[in-house]
Amino acid sequence: MTRIAIVEGDGIGHEVIPVAQNVLELLHPEYEYFPVEVGYHRWEMTGCPCADHDIAELKTADAILFGAITTPPMKDYQSVILRIRKVLDLYANLRPVKGNGFDIMIVRENTEGLYSGIEEISADRATTLRVVTREGTERVVRSAIRLAQQRSGRLTIGHKANVLKSDVLFRDICLAEAKSSGVSCNDKFIDALALDLLLHPASYDVVVTTNIFGDILSDTTSYLVGGLGLVPSANIGDRYALFEPVHGSAPDIAGQNIANPIAALRSAGMLLAYCGDAQGSDRIESAIQEVLSGGIRTRDLGGSAGTREFGDAVIRALIRKE
Ligand code: NAD
Ligand code: IPM
Ligand code: MN
Predict the structure, then answer these.
(1) Domain 99-227 is of which CATH architecture?
(2) Which-ligand-closest: CA of 248?
(3) What residues contact residue 225 under an 8 Å CB cut-off, 6+ apart?
(4) What is the pLDDT of residues 166-197, one digit of tens each?
(5) Domain definitions of the chain by residue range
(6) Cβ(42) to ligand 1 under 6 A?
(7) Is the pLDDT of residue 75 over 80?
(8) How remote is the C-alpha of 178 from its chain's centroid?
(9) Is 253 close to ligand 1, i.e. is its CB under 6 Å away?
(10) Which protein residue's CA is at the shortest distance from atom 11 of ligand 2?
């Protein structure tokens, strides 16, 4: 039986994830869904936002649907999502940004780079080690190449090799892998790429880059489709997979039933495709499109529908099409 772990997390995670879970339950009542409560609440109760046994539980799932977690006010804090990505070895973070006339897939390296966790902090100096390895680069670029082959066959490498020797290694490994795979490939400095993605989104297909550059590129390119409320992501490793919106817990709007649940719904769609139901994923996207075309929108898109009301409209659209 397919088992799905549900992590609402914090803030708007409590609002958008239930909407996505309702849709999953409608399409797959035969799956088992079980909650894992990590995050701020767990930290308040125990002083620890995510325990080893929570990680062990997550590992029993076939796939994880994840909301977002607020950074708890504690010294030496290790981000819960970063810990999960690392211990589950979710090395490829896929962040699709799809709109009118363009379809970009950002593939972010997800376990190393500036997120190595290797840091030295003293009163007057702090350093963070940026780690790029051959193994880490090869596996993420191979994922990006496989995706490019299933799509339009084009790959762009985003890097800062003019300054960072670690990115010379990243770029060169990516170029060599792309060459031997036969996909058409170009590379760009990350600063120029960030602007060009906004100016000429239709020129791009798969974009592979290092950890923090992918983090920033995915928030900025969300501008092309209406903002953070719309962009989903998949964190994929060889054994485990976690699906989450690109956005965070949005404390500024949490608890008001105004968050856009589309990013969470699309993340659920990516989860279904990973679990073998690509058609279910398409059904979720068509239902979202139908609801938007009917003029039902949340506040970030200029409408007045609440999170739950938007979710209910998606459920009705799915039932109508059954
Ligand atoms: P954020 O993504 O939570 O919010 C940025 C802005 O976008 C806010 O104005 C917010 O209201 C808006 N926004 C985000 N999602 C939206 C939605 N679905 N609908 C409508 N508007 C939306 O980023 P932030 O404010 O920089 O971070 C808030 C907290 O979330 C921090 O503690 C951060 O560390 C955490 N965070 C967690 C994750 C994660 O767990 N995966 C990801 C990003 C940020
Ligand atoms: C994201 C987030 C995380 C990241 C934070 C919350 C650690 O911004 O998933 O985009 O930097 O990867
Ligand atoms: Mn981010």
Answers:
(1) 3-Layer(aba) Sandwich (3.40)
(2) 1
(3) 97, 98, 99, 231
(4) 999 999 999 999 999 999 999 999 999 999 99
(5) 1-90+237-322, 99-227
(6) no
(7) no
(8) 24
(9) yes
(10) 215
